[in-house]
């Protein structure tokens, strides 16, 4: 037995010399690097396609490069409206989601009742099993013209109200979809806060709401920043909610990309919109990170004592 | 609520803190049971007890984090059960310090001043002065994680004292430090406490800390007060077997009460000291406490000790533990029914060394044998 191990060890030493050891950690990054590589390739392809104009006769992309797609896009009022709607929507969804997720995460972490904690965890994960599309259709049933809510209101002699196919319903659906992500990102940050620090703040003269603002919130910042990044980018680039709950009246950028690719078969224009979306999302995420400070993601562990 | 009617030992008008018949149960099991005491202004009281004796629970009731199940608390003569923690004039130093990691040392110290509505203009001056008191002048701009353990301790103390609270509570803040630093900080805190004259309640399970730092020691066990006394009295005149055993290294010997203030110990008659109660009727079984440092030890056959010993017996050394400034022996004594006595020797001859197996003479003075009726 020992012999075999010795042999394996010497084999390893020949095949994987000591000098290669320091690359071991890097080797674990390989799959991730591959994935990113594929993504970059796809982006490069799209960048290339976005620079070619569709020939409406042959439905082929032009041989030469041109900025025509981008020029059209800049002059297209609808495109600007869709972009504005997406960014504004993502911002509102992020703000509302964080405002709802933080108390949820806080109670889930801090409650003394194991029963309540389990209930909150289960209700958090349950929607995950259902999936975004099914959930969106669920809201159609609940909020539709003949939906549950309108039936109830009707029984009370009110309504019917138009609740779906509006901007509000898209944002509502997005918030509901993002909430679990946000809670799961914030909860560890709240767990990392020593409860005694909050008690200390109280003995030092702070009522609960000042403790919350001055201690809990700043200490939970890494989780909040992470949640904000994830929710904002997911909402900005979302496709399903605007389609299903917006019903074509409240398109986001991703819907425009889809339409260009699969309705008008203009992969050049579709690519241009997609590249513009990537650029906008990267820019906004960059601004958000600089503003909040990348260090606040907690990678440097400075909150530890 | 019977204890509420009991007479109080200290003038209530001078009491900064009064705890009257306070109790708290968790799931039907009492964690703190009928505790009453007062702390006069400017005094330093230490609550001493083994793990799980209810010290933290008691402290948290005083701080306002836990509501007492029964009884009432008074701070500055006012009942405080309806007062939330942030409205009580209390500074607390937590076991894990609970400093704000996102703030600098100075911002930590400034925090209570901001929360308590001090004028913005006077805050920096007060912070600066307080940091000087705890000898952290010039380190105010450091983040908490840039300070050493001892320096963090000082920040926590400064933060709890800076707004001159009526009362400071310490929940074993020194327990995590290494021994040398802990002993330094004990003296340091005592210096600051006396300098500022702030009333303090400290919690610890370290008897040495309790004796070193306090004006008064409150010994607790299983939620009940065992004794409230000066460190000196808690050490010299323990109120019961628990206190006698908890403070110091103590031997317990079974004895029977005789007439005339004497006892019978393993068949021989001898004198004894004063216990907390007069000696009971002859024939009653007693537990006698005998502190290890009150037992003298000498090699067999050497000249008699200079101090007149009332009881002298032969014994055999079983174990020797050299502790630097003292040596702890375990000695088997045939005349005490083969009981093993722990003996602490601080005399220089200790270093000559008695090995296990050595035949020795041990002895003690009658007044050091403290009888407790069973
Ligand atoms: N929140 C709680 N729920 C249930 N039981 C509790 C709670 N807090 C304390 N207890 C129990 O009350 C008793 C006293 O606990 P407490 O923390 O006051 O002890 P302590 O003297 O501070 O001990 P230590 O020196 O270990 O800190 C223990 O038996 C403990 O298990
Ligand atoms: Mg405790």
Describe the structure.
- The complex is a heterodimer of chains A (305) and B (374).
- Chain A has 305 residues and is an all-alpha fold.
- Chain A has a domain of 163 residues: MetI-like fold (Orthogonal Bundle).
- Chain A is 74% helix and 1% strand.
- Chain A is built from 15 helices and two strands.
- A two-stranded antiparallel ribbon of chain A has the order 1-2.
- In chain A, helix 9 runs antiparallel to helix 12 and helix 14 runs antiparallel to helix 15.
- Chain A is globular.
- Chain B has 374 residues and is of the alpha+beta class.
- In chain B, 22% of the residues lie in helices and 34% in strands.
- Chain B has eight helices and 20 strands.
- In chain B, a hairpin with a 4-residue loop joins strand 11 and strand 12.
- Chain B is globular and about 75 Å long.
- At the A-B interface, helix 10 and helix 11 of A face strand 6, helix 2 and helix 4 of B.
- The site of adenosine-5'-triphosphate (ATP) has 11 residues of chain B, from helix 1.
CATH fold-type name of the domain at 89-251 in chain A: MetI-like fold
- The named CATH superfamily of the largest domain in chain B: P-loop containing nucleotide triphosphate hydrolases
What is the beta-strand fraction of chain B?
25-35%
N→C terminal distance of chain B: 28 Å
Strand order of the largest sheet of chain B: 6-7-8-3-9-10
Largest sheet of chain B: 6 strands, mixed
Describe the structure concisely.
Chain A is mainly alpha-helical and 305 residues long. Chain A has 15 helices and two strands. In chain A, helix 9 (167-191) packs across helix 13 and helix 10 (195-203) packs antiparallel against helix 11 (208-219).
């Amino acid at each position: 037995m020992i012999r075999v191990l010795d042999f394996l060890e010497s084999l390893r030493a020949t095949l994987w010399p000591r000098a290669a050891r320091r690359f071991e950690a890097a080797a674990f990054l390989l799959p991730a690097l591959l994935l990113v590589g594929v993504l970059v390739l796809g982006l490069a392809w799209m960048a290339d396609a976005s620079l070619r104009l569709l020939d409406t006769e042959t439905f082929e992309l032009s041989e030469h490069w041109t900025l025509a797609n981008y020029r059209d896009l800049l002059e297209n009022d609808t495109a600007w409206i869709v972009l504005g709607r997406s960014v504004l929507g993502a911002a509102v969804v992020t703000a509302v989601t964080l405002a709802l997720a933080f108390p949820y995460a806080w109670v889930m972490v801090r409650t003394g009742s194991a029963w309540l904690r389990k209930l909150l965890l289960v209700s958090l994960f349950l929607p995950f099993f259902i999936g975004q599309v099914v959930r969106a259709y669920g809201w159609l049933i609940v909020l539709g013209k003949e939906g549950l809510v309108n039936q109830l209101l009707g029984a009370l002699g009110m309504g019917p109200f138009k609740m779906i196919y509006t901007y509000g319903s898209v944002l509502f659906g997005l918030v509901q979809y993002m909430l679990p992500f946000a809670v799961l990102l914030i909860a560890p940050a709240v767990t990392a806060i020593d409860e005694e620090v909050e008690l200390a703040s109280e003995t030092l003269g702070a009522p609960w709401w000042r403790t919350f603002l001055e201690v809990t919130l700043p200490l939970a910042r890494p989780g909040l920043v992470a949640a904000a990044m994830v929710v904002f980018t997911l909402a900005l680039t979302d496709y399903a909610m605007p389609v299903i709950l917006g019903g074509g009246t409240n398109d986001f950028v991703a819907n425009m990309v889809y339409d260009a690719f699969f309705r008008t078969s203009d992969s050049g224009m579709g690519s241009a919109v997609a590249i513009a979306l990537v650029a906008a999302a990267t820019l906004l995420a960059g601004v958000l990170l600089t503003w909040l400070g990348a260090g606040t993601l907690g990678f440097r562990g400075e909150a530890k004592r | 609520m019977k204890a509420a009617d009991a007479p109080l030992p200290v003038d209530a008008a001078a009491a900064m803190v009064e705890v009257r018949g306070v109790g708290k149960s968790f799931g039907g099991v009492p964690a703190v049971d009928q505790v009453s005491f007062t702390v006069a202004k400017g005094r330093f009281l230490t609550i001493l007890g083994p793990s799980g004796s209810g010290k933290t629970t008691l402290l948290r009731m005083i701080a306002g984090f836990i509501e007492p199940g029964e009884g009432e608390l008074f701070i500055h003569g006012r009942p405080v059960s309806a007062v939330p923690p942030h409205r009580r004039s209390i500074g607390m130093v937590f076991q894990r310090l609970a400093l704000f990691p996102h703030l600098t040392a100075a911002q930590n110290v400034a925090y209570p001043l901001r929360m308590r509505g001090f004028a913005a203009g006077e805050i920096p001056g007060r912070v600066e002065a307080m940091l000087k008191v705890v000898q952290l002048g010039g380190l105010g701009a450091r983040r908490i994680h840039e300070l050493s353990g001892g320096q963090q301790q000082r920040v926590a103390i400064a933060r709890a004292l800076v707004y001159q609270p009526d009362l400071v509570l310490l929940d074993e803040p020194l327990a995590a430090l290494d021994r040398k630093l802990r002993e330094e900080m004990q003296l340091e805190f005592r210096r600051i406490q006396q300098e500022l004259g702030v009333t303090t309640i400290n919690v610890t399970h370290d008897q040495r800390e309790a004796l070193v730092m306090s004006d008064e020691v409150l010994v607790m066990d299983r939620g009940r007060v065992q004794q409230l006394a000066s460190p000196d009295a808690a050490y010299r005149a323990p109120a019961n077997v628990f206190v006698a055993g908890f403070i110091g290294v103590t031997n317990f010997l079974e004895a029977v009460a005789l007439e005339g203030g004497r006892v019978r110990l393993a068949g021989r008659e001898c004198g004894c000291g004063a216990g907390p109660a007069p000696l009971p009727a002859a024939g009653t079984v007693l537990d006698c406490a005998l502190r290890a440092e009150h037992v003298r030890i000498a090699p067999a056959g050497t000249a008699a000790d200079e101090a007149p010993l009332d009881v002298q017996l032969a014994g055999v050394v079983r174990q020797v533990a050299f502790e630097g400034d003292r040596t702890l022996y375990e000695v088997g004594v045939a005349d005490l029914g083969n009981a093993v006595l722990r003996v602490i020797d601080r005399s220089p001859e200790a270093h000559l060394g008695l090995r296990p197996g050595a035949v020795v003479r041990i002895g003690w003075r009658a007044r050091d044998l403290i009888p407790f009726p069973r």
